[in-house]
């Protein structure tokens, strides 16, 4: 039963949360790009910054939020 509960909690997070990137706080370290399993983030053409290119792909795993040293990447409630 615990596996079903964990699955349901993850499904709810995926449905109701998505990633956000605060560019004013972002240091451009590329950590979010390195840890995102689905490719929400991409380096800019010059490679000096990161952009949130595909937030719709977010599975709300929280890897970016946990690893971001500047706390620029965060999971926030999806806009409806």
Summary?
31% of the residues lie in helices and 20% in strands. The protein contains three helices and four strands, in the order H-E-H-E-E-H-E.
How would the blueprint of this fold be written?
Blueprint: H1 2-16, E1 17-21, H2 31-35, E2 41-43, E3 50-52, H3 63-67, E4 73-77
Antiparallel strand pairs: 1-4, 2-3
Question: What would you say this structure looks like, in words?
Answer:
By secondary structure, the chain is of the alpha+beta class. The protein has a domain at 27-80: Alpha-Beta Plaits. The protein contains three helices and four strands, in the order αβαββαβ. The chain has helices spanning 2-16, 31-35, 63-67, and strands at 17-21, 41-43, 50-52, 73-77. Strand 2 (41-43) and strand 3 form a beta hairpin.
Question: Which descriptors apply to this entry?
Answer:
two-stranded antiparallel sheet; alpha+beta; 80 residues; 4 strands; Alpha-Beta Plaits; single chain; elongated; 31% helix; 20% strand
């Amino acid at each position: 039963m615990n596996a079903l509960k964990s699955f349901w909690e993850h499904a709810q997070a995926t449905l109701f949360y998505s990633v956000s990137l605060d560019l004013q706080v972002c240091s451009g370290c590329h950590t979010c790009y390195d840890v995102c399993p689905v490719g929400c983030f991409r380096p800019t053409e010059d490679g000096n910054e990161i952009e949130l290119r595909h937030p719709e792909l977010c599975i709300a795993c929280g890897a970016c939020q946990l690893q971001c040293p500047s706390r620029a990447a965060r999971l926030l409630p999806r806009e409806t």
